[in-house]
Structure to design on (758 residues):
């Protein structure tokens, strides 16, 4: 059991949890993630580590309500516990002195980009951060990103805050203005990461994306998180989650992430609209009267 | 007097093919004693010689004849700390029963069935308070991975008086026994009971720790004060064939398919949250011929698959699966497409698998493994309509520990190199065994490695000599 020291909403539907997780706190490096299982019947899902505090034995994760598991997670409060938290998983970001780096966070992806931005700043890079969200209330970690960057650019899709547009509009401006860019890191929705890859390809700017495929064990055992990299299967949990954006097949990622859409919708509908007593058992065995 | 082998009572195939309850129901005490009476009491028992952990078969079988089932269980436990598990999943025909003299005259003694009976009897009657604890040695051993090799090493070492702490990456104890082997062959309750027995012996367990990520081997020595470490992390990432269409939705690795079903209870969706593709009425194939392949396809059948195929590129004689599983699968209606291999997976146009283009094979000259090499027959290609395909063609080495532990040596495939007798690695104080050393093998071979490692660790802790 992993105790929630503090739970707070950063934005509507986006919550930050500070968790007691001493082993993970000691080992975490930017770019890594955890897998959580909220309760006994729960699924395993990967989540971003926003930061770690080894002195307090804590890590923080940022969760956006999307499906049943994230809604359930975001209903938890300070003092509650999460059944399983395992990590830190994945290869850490490659931290080096590149020169000028552009860190792009789309929506809740900003939480994953933040620790890497901080580490790249610390390593002596000039950091240009671009943070975007759909609208004003969904902009997260603006202050934190500001603290670890030399330039902070903010966009909202609807123009309700800062500049109207997408994070890619800002990147395009930087490129057009002739800004020298040595590395781009983009973390966010798949269409955003794909658009970034297409924008930097003709410019030959080294571009890294952090991928978020469906994942189960997270240790390189099951192969569920396989992504197509240069036409070959790689596993995001042990070979990633960061990959060279130009080598990623984003179409396959979109297709595979949609694999359980119907089941996910059903789980969320049941969670939001049915009482426990109304939930029907399903599956062949359950029809036969249960097996466990 | 020639007694026939006592049959294992089973659920009828028609019922069990729709349900995850265990296929074999187990001997009654009467059946067990009748079967035990068949033992020839050989002067030189080949059953023990062929057992990877050296179970004293003749002695425990005689205790069954005498009706002292608890003493029989204790006799097995001298060499095997997981009898209820090996009694169910061991390929006995390759080991104890394969060496049985009775086989020459007909059918071998039902050693696996007897072991299972004794273990289940013990579980119902044992008293944790009666477990004798060895005097503490003050030494600490970390076991990395709670699969068959790790559990065996842990059970052996705790009986020597060492502090034994098992780290498991997943949220349940048991490794492949939990995520890989389905309920109908090895009920989770059996694993829980065997693990509880180990807890009663004094073994400590910690879940949600990925050694190499959550903590390193170096830190286990330096910060947590372990005196020796056993690595039994099992097989790694699943292999794919590299044919077109493998990225389609509906194409699974066997590890993912079985992990969803077994560890995550997808077969109980939506009571459990982790989903699986809806298999009801769908045509499903598994590619491969081992136990994993049969576990996957028999699970698919139980989840309502329409047609359920095993596609294997060699012939049935070369199938590595346990004989009883092949028999059970046939009875349940699995369609075996032998000497066949997929060459491409075809899309329905929306990213989902629709069919496999397959080719028929014939057996040519023997290959490196000594088995006749399958060769495609020109012009034999055909399309097999499929909604789900499960790749069960093997695994490759998981790199996490090797890449975070200086001084471990690995072979070309990335598996950890360990001495075949002592399981010692190139790194002082570190031992390794099971699939992370050998590549995919069986539960009992991993247990054999765990047992050898335990013996060597105990000696190392006593003498300090490497």
């Amino acid at each position: 059991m992993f105790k929630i020291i503090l739970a707070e909403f950063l934005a509507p539907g986006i919550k930050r949890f500070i968790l007691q997780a001493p082993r993970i706190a000691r080992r975490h490096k930017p770019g890594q993630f955890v897998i959580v299982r909220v309760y006994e019947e729960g699924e395993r899902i990967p989540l971003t580590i926003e930061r770690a505090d080894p002195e307090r034995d804590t890590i923080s994760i940022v969760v956006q309500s999307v499906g049943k598991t994230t809604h359930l997670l975001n209903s938890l409060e300070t003092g509650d516990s999460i059944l399983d938290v395992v990590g830190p998983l994945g290869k850490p970001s490659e931290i080096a002195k590149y020169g000028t780096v552009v860190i792009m966070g789309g929506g809740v992806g900003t939480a994953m980009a933040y620790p890497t931005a901080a580490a790249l700043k610390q390593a002596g890079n000039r950091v240009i951060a671009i943070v975007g969200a759909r609208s004003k209330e969904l902009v997260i970690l603006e202050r934190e990103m500001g603290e670890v960057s030399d330039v902070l650019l903010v966009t909202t899709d609807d123009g309700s805050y800062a500049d109207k547009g997408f994070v890619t509009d800002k990147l395009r401006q930087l490129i057009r203005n002739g800004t020298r860019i040595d590395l781009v890191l983009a973390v966010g929705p798949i269409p955003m990461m794909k658009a970034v890859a297409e924008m930097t390809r003709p410019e030959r700017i080294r571009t890294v994306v952090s991928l978020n495929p469906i994942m189960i064990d997270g240790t390189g055992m099951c192969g569920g998180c396989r992504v197509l990299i240069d036409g070959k299967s790689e596993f995001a949990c042990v070979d990633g989650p960061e990959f060279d954006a130009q080598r990623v097949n984003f179409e396959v990622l979109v297709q595979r992430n949609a694999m359980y859409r119907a089941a996910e919708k059903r789980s969320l509908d049941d969670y939001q609209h049915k009482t426990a007593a109304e939930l029907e058992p399903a599956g062949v065995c359950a029809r036969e009267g249960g097996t466990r | 007097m020639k007694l026939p082998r006592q049959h294992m009572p089973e659920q009828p195939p028609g019922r069990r093919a729709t349900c995850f309850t265990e296929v074999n129901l187990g001997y009654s005490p009467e059946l067990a004693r009748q079967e035990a009476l068949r033992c020839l009491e050989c002067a030189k028992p080949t059953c023990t010689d062929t057992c990877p952990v050296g179970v004293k078969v003749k002695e425990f079988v005689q205790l069954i004849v005498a009706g002292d089932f608890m003493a029989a269980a204790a006799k097995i436990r001298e060499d095997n700390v997981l009898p209820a598990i090996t009694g169910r999943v061991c390929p006995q025909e390759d080991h104890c029963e394969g060496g049985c003299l009775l086989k020459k005259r007909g059918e071998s003694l039902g050693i696996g069935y007897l072991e299972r009976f004794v273990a289940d009897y013990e579980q119902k009657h044992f008293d944790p308070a009666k477990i004798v604890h060895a005097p503490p040695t003050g030494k600490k051993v970390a076991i990395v991975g709670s699969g068959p090799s790790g559990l065996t090493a842990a059970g052996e070492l705790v009986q020597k008086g060492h502090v034994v702490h098992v780290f498991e990456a997943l949220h349940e104890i048991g490794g492949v026994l939990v995520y890989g082997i389905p309920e109908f062959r090895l009920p989770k309750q059996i694993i829980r009971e065997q693990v509880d027995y180990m807890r009663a012996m004094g073994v400590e367990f910690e879940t949600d720790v990925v050694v190499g990520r959550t903590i390193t081997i170096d830190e286990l020595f330096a910060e947590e004060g372990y005196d020796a470490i056993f690595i039994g992390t099992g097989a790694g990432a699943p292999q794919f064939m590299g044919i077109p269409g493998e990225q389609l939705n509906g194409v699974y690795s066997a590890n993912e398919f079985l992990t969803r079903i077994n560890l995550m209870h997808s077969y109980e969706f939506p009571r459990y949250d982790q989903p699986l593709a809806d298999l009801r009425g769908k045509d499903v194939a598994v590619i491969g011929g081992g136990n994993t392949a049969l576990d996957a396809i028999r699970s698919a059948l139980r989840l309502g698959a329409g047609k359920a195929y095993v596609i294997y590129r060699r012939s049935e004689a070369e199938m590595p699966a346990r004989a009883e599983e092949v028999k059970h699968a046939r009875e349940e209606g699995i369609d075996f497409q032998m000497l066949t291999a997929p060459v491409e997976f075809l899309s329905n146009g929306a990213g989902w698998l629709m069919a496999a283009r397959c080719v028929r094979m014939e057996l040519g000259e023997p290959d490196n493994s000594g088995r006749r090499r399958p060769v495609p027959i020109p012009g034999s290609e055909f399309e097999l309509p499929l909604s789900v395909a499960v790749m069960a063609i093997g695994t490759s080495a998981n790199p996490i520990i090797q890449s975070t532990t200086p001084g471990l040596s690995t072979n070309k495939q990335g598996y950890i190199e360990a001495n075949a007798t002592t399981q010692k690695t190139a790194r002082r104080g570190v031992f390794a065994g099971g699939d992370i050393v050998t590549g995919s093998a069986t539960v009992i071979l991993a247990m054999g490695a765990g047992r050898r490692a335990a013996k060597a660790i105990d000696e190392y802790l006593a003498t300090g000599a490497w």
The first strand of chain B starts at residue 140 and ends at 144. Chain B touches chain A through 55 residues (CB under 8 Å).
